[in-house]
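Render this sequence as a predicted structure.
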Amino acid sequence: MVGGDKAAYITVAILFVFSVLSTRLDDITDLKFGATGVAAALNRKLEQAQATVDQLQRVAELFGQLSVQQISGSNRWGGMSVKDKREAIAKIEDSLKAISMPAEKIRSVLAVQVPYDNFDYFHWASNPILSSGDTAVQDVRGPFFERYGEKGIADGFPPIEEFEGFLLANGWMKGEIAERVRDWKHYVKTGQHRRLAEWESRHDSGMSGLSLEDALQ
C-alpha cells in the first residue's frame, strides 16, 4: 500500500458515519407536528437518532480495529512508511473522537497495534545480533531466537525482562541495543515512543544496517 491509498482506511468510515447521521438529523429537523403529541414524537425521533449513533459507534469501532490492524501489519519492510502508518492511525483516532466514541472504546481500537509494535521493538533491538556473521554470536543467539522465530506476531517476541537478561548474560546490554530496549520498555509502560525520530527511521540503512560492534559502542 503506497501513496494516497492510506486514506482509503479512513475515508469510507467517515463518509458512512456522517452520511447516516445527517439522514437522521434531517429527519428530526423536518418533523411537522400537530398541536398535541409534539414531545412524544420528538422523543421517538431522538431515541431513533441515538440508536443510530450507538450503531454507528459499534460499526466504527469494528472498522477502526480492522483498519489499525491492517495498517500496522501491512508492508512491514516496504511500501507505507512507519511515519505514514502512525499518521493514518492518528486520523482514525480523530475520526472516532469526532463521532463521540467513548475513550475506552477508542483505546480498544488502538490496542490492536500493540503486538505489532512489540514485535518490531524486539526485532529492532535484536537486529545487530541477528545480522552478525560471527560464528560465536550465531551459536549463542540460535537457541534463544529459535523459540520465537516460527511464532506469529502476537507470540513472536519474549517478555522484555527475559530478553534483557539474555542480553546482559552475553554482554550485549549496552550502546544502541540498550537504548532500543529502553525504548521498548518505555512504549510498554506509556504507549508512547521514547525516540520517535529513531523509531520512524528504523528501516533506513543507517539504522537497520548497524553492525553489532557499532551497536555496542
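Summary. Residues 38-73 form the longest helix (36 residues). The two ends are 37 Å apart (CA to CA).
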